[in-house]
From TrEMBL:
Coiled-coil annotated residue ranges, if any: none
Domain of life from the UniProt record: Bacteria
Pfam name, any one: PNPOx_N
Signal peptide coordinates: none
Cited InterPro entries: Pyridox_Oxase_FMN-dep, Pyridox_Oxase_N, Split_barrel_FMN-bd
The protein's name: Flavin-nucleotide-binding protein
Entries under SUPFAM superfamilies matching the protein: FMN-binding split barrel (SSF50475)
Length: 219
């Protein structure tokens, strides 16, 4: 593991500064991409790609807006997205914290990137495209789960779709239970919220109430 240290002076730690490289330097360092990494990129979901997306219960969606970047987790057992056709994905927007950072970003800038994970598989899958936020009643009604209807849905028009090689997941040994963190060794949501809010929010009461609140508001 590489560890970095900050230079310190009388005023405490100084920010680390590194020399940036330009595009030409990167090309010199890395050379040409392997042919397989180019031909795998498609403008739609070919049948094998569709199978991976259908198997994925979890993905992260990245978006960009005028004020912030955002990368949000999304998940649902049985399939995290609905495949409308080979070029279109639909994402129900289920209950969350109402920050709606992703939705605000998409309204201002339609570019999105999705990264899908399939538990037990080292291969990940990526989709880049253009998205809209829709509140069309017919669309939302078609997305009902457990008697609940999402307040909106994200419709993604696929521009590029491709699988990512397994090296990152292999290096992380991501799905090996022997390396799973024990929950009691990590700060709880209530503890982190209390620290972030200078004890105004969170704490033990938050943690005690969370499991029941989460169960009531999954959809």
């Amino acid at each position: 593991m590489v560890r970095l240290s900050c230079r310190t002076g009388r005023k405490g730690a100084e920010p680390l500064k590194w020399q940036a490289v330009d595009s030409e330097t990167l090309n010199q360092i890395y050379g040409e991409p392997a042919p397989a990494s180019i031909v795998k990129e498609k403008d739609r979901l070919i049948p094998s790609y569709r199978r991976v997306v259908e198997a994925s219960p979890f993905f992260a969606i990245a978006s960009v807006g005028p004020d912030r970047l955002d990368c949000s987790p999304r998940g649902e057992r049985g399939g995290a997205v609905i495949i409308a056709d080979e070029r279109t994905l639909i994402i129900p927007d289920w209950r969350g914290n109402n920050r709606i950072d992703t939705l605000r970003n998409i309204v201002g800038d339609p570019r999105v990137a999705l990264l899908f994970l399939v538990p037990g598989s080292a291969t990940t899958f990526r989709v880049n495209g253009q998205a809209i936020v829709s509140c069309d009643p017919d669309l939302l009604d078609s997305l009902q789960q457990n008697g609940k209807t999402p307040r909106s849905a994200i419709v993604v028009s696929i521009q590029t779709a491709f699988f990512q090689c397994a090296r990152a997941v292999m290096r992380a040994d991501l799905w090996n239970p022997a390396h799973f963190s024990e929950a009691e060794t990590l700060p709880t949501a209530g503890q982190m919220l209390a620290e972030a809010s200078d004890e105004r929010e969170g704490g033990e009461a938050y943690d005690r109430a969370w499991p029941e609140r989460a169960a009531r508001t999954l959809f």
